[in-house]
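Justification of computing resources. Each target in the renewal requires a structure prediction run like the one illustrated here; the chain below, 244 residues long, is used simply to show the kind of job we budget for.
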Amino acid sequence: MFEGTPECLQPTHIAQPAIFLYSVILANTIPHFQPGMVAGHSLGEFSALVAIDVLSFEDGLNLVAARASAMQNACELVPGTMAAIIGLSDDKVSEICDSIDAVVAPANYNCPGQLVISESIQGVKIACKTLQAAGAKKVIPLKVGGFHSSLMEPAREQLAEAVARTKFKTGICPIYQNVNAAPATAPEVIKKQLIKQLTSPILWTRTIHCMVRDGATRFLECGPGNVLQGLVKKIDPNIEVATV
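Resulting structure tokens:
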């Protein structure tokens, strides 16, 4: 993790367990860890579930490894890609994706003015050109597969089998899940949403709004880098953010 080259760490089946490990270990360094609520962006839901004792560390790592392997296999089965669109409204990006005669759709609603699209390589390529013509400030191709799209259906089926074999407990606080931005505590609900996440958009903007609505005033990021802090500040500039 600390000495590997970017090329060695980039493959999905390596990157996801590495990010999970880093995030969980970082959360474990917080004294008297008692959050009022948690959320995780995509893969981050798994480290969040371990942090609040819904999953054991071992079970969480096994699920992440299974998820990463399944996603890697799905990418090889039907190649796809993603691209970040900067400077257009969510509605405008969705409207343009719907109008294109190719497979492409919103995948990550990260913050106002930043949305990631996903699906087929051709669909994303066409959408990027159309979105640039429509006034996007930046279009950034991402070196990943077609995550959070219909292309991940084979991975979703494999993850469902792994989740079914895993023990989920009631955690120390609610987790606000990506697929509907709503708080969940019931293990069966959390399982269902975790599986659905692979083929559904990440509603991060709505998630932060819901957490603030429910009383969150300070967000502490547990993970490599500070990307989520930046997103939260763009979603609500009045919120305090920090890292461990």
